[in-house]
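Notes continue from the previous slide.

Worked example: a multi-chain complex. Inputs as given:
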Amino acid sequence: MTSLHDTAPIAPMRVVGQRLPRVDAGERVTGRAIYPADLTRPGMITGLIKRSPHAHARIVKIDATKALALKGVIAVVTSADFPEIKPNTIIPFGETGADAWVSAVIVLARDRVLWRGQPVAAVAAVDAHVARAALDLIDVTYEPLPHVMSIAGAILAGAPLLSPDLKPKGFDTGTPIVRNAGSRTLIERGDTAAALQSSAVVGGVDAVIDTAHQGYIEPHACVAETDAGGFVTLWASSQGAFQTEIQTAVLLGLPQSKIKVIPLEIGGGFGGKITVHVEPIAARLAQISGRPVKIVMSREEMLTGGSGPAAAAQIDVRVGADAQGRITAIAGHYLLDTGGIPGTPTTLLMQASAACYQTPCLRLEGIDIMTNKPRTEAYRGPGGIQAAFAMEQAIDEVALKLNIDPLELRRRNAAVTGSLMPVGTPFPSIGLTTILDRVAAHACWRDPIAPGSLPRGRGLALGYWRGTSMTSAAHVTISGDGRPMVTMGSVDISGTRTTMAQVAAEEFGLSIGDVHVASGDTKSAGYSDAAAGSRVGRTMAAAVSEACRDALAQLTRRAAEKLQTTVANVTYASGVFRSGAAAPASISLADLMRATLTDGAIVGRGVSTKLPFGVEIGAHVADVEADPETGQVTVLRYTAFQDVGRALNPVAVEGQIEGSVVQGLGWALTEGFDYAADGRLRNASLLDYRMPTALDVPPIECVLIETPVPGVPYGLRGVGEMPIVPPAATIANALRRALGVRLTHMPMTPERVLAAIKGANFGKASG
Amino acid sequence: MKSVITCEINGEPRDALADGRDTLLELLRDRLGLTGTKEGCGNGNCGACTVLMNGEPVCACLVLAGEAHGAKITTIEGIARGNTLHPVQSALIAHGGTQCGFCTPGIVLSAVALLDRNPHPSPHEIRHAIAGNLCRCTGYDKIVEAIAAVAHGTNIDVKPAP
Ligand code: FES
Ligand code: FES
């Protein structure tokens, strides 16, 4: 009587920390996993979106008469079919709330288009061929307006003002307002200017970073349907079912209780599937037509304005140090391209870029700048890679100027538990010095670079990401055979079902095969924030373990009754309740449920809010080779060290790190939007917007370090965001050692590498 | 203009009415309900739509439905034998070679095609064979490890759940 299985003996059960395959992997390798584009509903029709051909224009008139007359066209919508949402319509969203106006402008332009590819109308038709023909028949009259496609252009005195009515935030009296600024954030302590002036050396880098895309392989897609009572059901591929529900409800002017979002599989998001893009349009078309509507974006639509890319940036950093290599001051100026709508936050990335170092003086100033590009959205540790690209190169410059080993310089200045974070509060438990010790002892740092015929160099960079906590909910019921069934309010974007099955199995002392975990829809699960900010693993683990303990407490009361003893006398382990009373007795969880199923449901509830942050810190080391004739860069070896608190499932953790690093290498070397002067995106395909293939990257070696976070179940830290932060700086620092030049424009394409080499030679010749 | 396409899909004879503009990908997904084959780009750049046509891997988004008339097509739905997974599928599970899973059907087809013509590929040959399949989640390591494990007959069992 020791097993849930009627026949099989119970297996050993320490499941947290084990290398386990994903519980849902079988569906994925057989093609049975269902994403929204795979779904068909009875009577379903196809929706398509008409987009702006202008980077900036006033919409004079939209005439859909001809489109509606086409046989097979069922409905057309424009902004006139949606309530107008004013700026500062704040909806609940994570730590700070969000402005529903931003979502509204992204979903459908009203009066004015602010980027090429911004939606202006949508059509629903019997099939995609008819819908495509109908799009051409929607007549839109525009009055083009002057546009600007770069931060450098937008801040010039004569640049067109993209939001003339907007009053930029954060510019106190005496601070000149930057043209096209959204808002300004300042983090300051000490007299940074004076400290830099009196420093023995100053390392500086002025960096420019091009817009990039999150690059998830699954395009945005959804299916919407209404019932006779007007209740809307949405099948979505979204990082947050509840966030999709709230945004869609507000944009449609529906009460939130009238919409249910059912999360299906998500083919990657990386931050780009938090804001709604197609969902409110599909829902409105479904309401008007009375038919289920599916919308699937094309890749070209996604790249040219249908989704929000990651911010371009202009970042200038200065790091001062004394002759012993102690940092005296850090100054950073961060201009972030927010695209056509202001409000892309700069705070987290500024802090992240300076967080690894102790410094008496610090001045970080961040401003988001409007351009006629799609509204920027989050991308894995948003802004972190851009900021680190500048900061970690400046630190490397200090090391070169002082002729100190770059690892040693970082060791001398490393943040430690209790030292001040950029915001001015002490660091919680962190393991940066342990990480640096591990780097120093590792072959990737100790061994000389393998020789080659082309110049080679080794680079080091640190990364930091704070992540968020926000709220997660889960509940657990016990099925009639005694097995725990967990329902989460979060979607599964990074293997959450597997890791939470590990948590539930651990709590119940069962095998992972004996628990079931699913993401609930928004009417059957408790509110949870989006799967973003490296938060779900930690906070959902807290919610699931609380829910399991709650269920076990209820079960223990029931077991006490069955065993005719008091609750205090009952112990539970590995699927069996035992009475320690005079006459020892036991009952298995399975038998208990069989005997008492009809006595009432067991429902364990867990909610986690305001968990301590699980800051992520890591160090990356790369060996690169560069061809001075072609500018081609080859990454020969890559090692990623990361403090993960505790690896719930090392396979999943490594998978997050490896994927994240390769995304970082993509932006570092090849990924960048190339805009023509007229606002057209010249590389709007996955051929020309070049993401890494299996041939472009070396194996990524992961070194996991475990410094648990107090107050978090299992001591978990965030994992998935930090590893995208250091790669570009790591490669740039390696190239500096290989070629003797600083690469300050990202991506570091062969053309830019060649230009840097030529510039350096020219400099030498004329000097 | 619609016409009837007759072909063999996963060993079964199939007929479907296709629009002259339909691709093989649309034929499979929209007309036949075989949604395991994915669309990531629609123009031959991502490999998510990889299927075997007469034994050769092709991007189904680049083949017109009409061209599939009379062909033998293998899709992801035809790789496992009933509930018995192909070793490539088992290895991807065991090695963590699938995350979001959107690229996975295409990766499986490319790997199966590779091992059919070269049962013992080197890691470089494996990377070469899947270079047309973009994966944004895994960084490729665990995919390459999985395929290498099949090629060398090692460690392809899914680790039994504890
Ligand atoms: S969908 Fe066919 S290659 Fe991308
Ligand atoms: S697993 Fe997500 S794209 Fe490969």
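Summary box: The beta strands of chain B are 2-9, 12-19, 50-53, 56-59, 72-74. Residues B 39-42, 44-49, 59, 61 surround FE2/S2 (inorganic) cluster (ligand 1) (CB under 6 Å).
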